[in-house]
Structure formats: structure tokens, C-alpha cells
């Protein structure tokens, strides 16, 4: 069943951008999320995610990373606070009641709320926790992730792997030049949510503050490729990285500025291509 479209409005007391949240969630799942597939695959392979894995996905969004882990046999639980994206995750992961037992496979859990809401006292602790939503390009995102980890790590076994992801160095991410639109249009007095260049030690700082033991890291090529400029604008807006700019200048103006910034990355056939490098960090629960 397709969710009814609703709009999020903002008042003078609410700085949230006025956007169609259901349409944005659909753009994320259909356009943008697949750009991170190389990251998901690399981490799953490195950690040997499989039938013995109990995985908790933080900020799981519309669930593509969970679906890929479940396809490897893992028992997956996803938690997020965005009902629009979770509705799509349920479509992907929860079994069709009409399907037979073989078609259903291993059950997945999709939880709306905070990590603590994913606790299951009847089951063993999680042995993998993933936070694939990349940090490092938005002021305040590291602090927000730290709060989620503080709730999630008590649900894990000792020695469990915790995976954090972030944007790579700006000089290795072609999309960085486009993301600067967000900084230029944002309200300069807004202290959080504004775009900033990724820093080298963002992930390590989060892990250390959470009391985790760092156990390795890596870089993955995740090029952003789009069929045309319109799909590129829709995909990038779905990340939320431009919300501060939308609050200050409006979605129409941000879209126009984005289209202009994307022009150098447009190929002769109209497609848009931006090579990027993302980082991941593997830490362990003490």
C-alpha cells in the first residue's frame, strides 16, 4: 500500500524545511541510496556477514543495506526515526503474509524510534552494528551519531563490530563542489545542520567518544551517477544535506543552484557523473 502524500510545513518557530517527506523518501530509495552499494558490499564482505550474524542497522532508512545483509543470511534489525523511509524498508524486508515459509526467509525487524527500542531481551546481543548514513559533511551529525551509539552499544555483545561511515577527503569527492551550495545558501546563524567539509578524523573521534576500540578502516569508491540533472537534483536533495539551505532560501532556489553546480559534471549524453570516495571505520565494543 502506497503511503498518502503529506507535507511538512514550517512556521516562524519551526526551522524545518517545507518538503514533501514521502516524495523525498521515495527519491532516496529509488535514486540516491544505490550510490552507497559499494560501501555496503565492502563492509559486509570484510566482516563476513552471514547466517551467524545478528545485525542492527542504525538510521537504516529505506533498508537497502539491511536487505543486502539479509540476502547473505543475516538476521537484521533496522531502526530509524523517519516513518517515511521505514515504510519503504518494510516493503523491502517484511514478508508478504501470502508468501509461503520458504519465500519469507529469515525474519527482519523494522523499528521506528531510538536504538533502545530495538532491544530484545529474548535474543542474544547483536554482533554487528552498522551506521552507514555518512557523517562528516553536516555540522552536528557526529554528535547525533554519538548519542545513537550510546544507546546501541549496550545491546551488543562484547567484541561486536561497530561500523561507522563518512565522506572521504573533499579533494577525493567530486560531489563536494556541489555540496558547497548548501553552505552558501544556508542561514549563517544556524549552528547545526549546515554543510561543512569532512575532516580526516571525524569517524575516529566519534568512536573514541563512544568508548569503542578502533579495529581498522578503509576507503571505498562510491561514484554518484544519474540519468540526468533532474534526477541528480532529486537524489541529492533526498540526502537532507541541503535542508539548511532550503529553510533559508526555499527548495526552488536550492534546486536551481544545484542544477547550475552540476553542470560541470554533466556528460555529452546528459548523464551526470561524480567520482567520490567514502571512508568506513570498524570499531569494537569493549
TrEMBL record:
Segments of skewed composition (Basic and acidic residues): 109-120
Highest taxon, organism lineage: Bacteria
InterPro entries: SAM-dependent_MTases_sf (IPR029063)
Region called Disordered, residue ranges: 97-122
UniProt protein name: SAM-dependent methyltransferase
Originating organism: Streptomyces fuscichromogenes
Amino acid at each position: 500500500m502506497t503511503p498518502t502524500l503529506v507535507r511538512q510545513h514550517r512556521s516562524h518557530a519551526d526551522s524545518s524545511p517545507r518538503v514533501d517527506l514521502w516524495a523525498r523518501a521515495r527519491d532516496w530509495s529509488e535514486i540516491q541510496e544505490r550510490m552507497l552499494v559499494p560501501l555496503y558490499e565492502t563492509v559486509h564482505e570484510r566482516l563476513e556477514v552471514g547466517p551467524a550474524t545478528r545485525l542492527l542497522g542504525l538510521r537504516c532508512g529505506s533498508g537497502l543495506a539491511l536487505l543486502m545483509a539479509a540476502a547473505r543470511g543475516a538476521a537484521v534489525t533496522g531502526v530509524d526515526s523517519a516513518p517515511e523511509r521505514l515504510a519503504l524498508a518494510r516493503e523491502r524486508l517484511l514478508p508478504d503474509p501470502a508468501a509461503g515459509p520458504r519465500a519469507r526467509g529469515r525474519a527482519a525487524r523494522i523499528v521506528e524510534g531510538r536504538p533502545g527500542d530495538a532491544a530484545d531481551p529474548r535474543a542474544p546481543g547483536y554482533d554487528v552494528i552498522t551506521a552507514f548514513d555518512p557523517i562528516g559533511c553536516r555540522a552536528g551529525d557526529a554528535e547525533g551519531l554519538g548519542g545513537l551509539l550510546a544507546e546501541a552499544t549496550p545491546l551488543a555483545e562484547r567484541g561486536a563490530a561497530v561500523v561507522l561511515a563518512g565522506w572521504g577527503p573533499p579533494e577525493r569527492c567530486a560531489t563536494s563542489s556541489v555540496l558547497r551550495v548548501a553552505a552558501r545558501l544556508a542561514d549563517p546563524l544556524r549552528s547545526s545542520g549546515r554543510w561543512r567539509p569532512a575532516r580526516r578524523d571525524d569517524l575516529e573521534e566519534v568512536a573514541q567518544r563512544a568508548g569503542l576500540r578502533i579495529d581498522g578502516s578503509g576507503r571505498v569508491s562510491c561514484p554518484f551517477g544519474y540519468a540526468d540533472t533532474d534526477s541528480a537534483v532529486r537524489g541529492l536533495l533526498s540526502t537532507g544535506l541541503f535542508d539548511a539551505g532550503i529553510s533559508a532560501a526555499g527548495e526552488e532556489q536550492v534546486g536551481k543552484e544545484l542544477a547550475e553546480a552540476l553542470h560541470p559534471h554533466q556528460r555529452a549524453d546528459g548523464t551526470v557523473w561524480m567520482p567520490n570516495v567514502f571512508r568506513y571505520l570498524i570499531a569494537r565494543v569493549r
